[in-house]
């Protein structure tokens, strides 16, 4: 699970940085790099970031970290 947690955190950070750029500058990095918001690759990235965000919710409720 440790690897899945790290991947989820990286994707969540990417999503947060993208939303920060949208909020501050009106610039969607994912759409710019992938050919628009409705491009298939953009939608896949947005979906992966959303799933990663849901996964990160589970990190809040874990009792201990089995390292």
Structure report:
The protein has 67 residues and is an all-alpha fold. The protein has one domain (2-60). It contains three helices and no strands. Helix 1 (2-25) crosses helix 3 (40-60). It starts with a helix and ends in a 7-residue tail after the last helix. The mean pLDDT is 92.
Percent of sequence in beta strands: under 5%
Number of helices: 3
Silhouette: elongated
Helix content: over 70%
Number of domains: 1
- Number of DSSP strand runs: 0
Low-confidence blocks of residues: none
Radius of gyration equals 14 Å
In terms of structural class, how would the helical and strand content be classed?
mainly alpha
Reported for the largest beta sheet, the result is:
none
The string of secondary-structure elements, in order, is: HHH
Distance between the termini: 10 Å
User: Mean pLDDT across all residues, rounded?
Assistant: 92
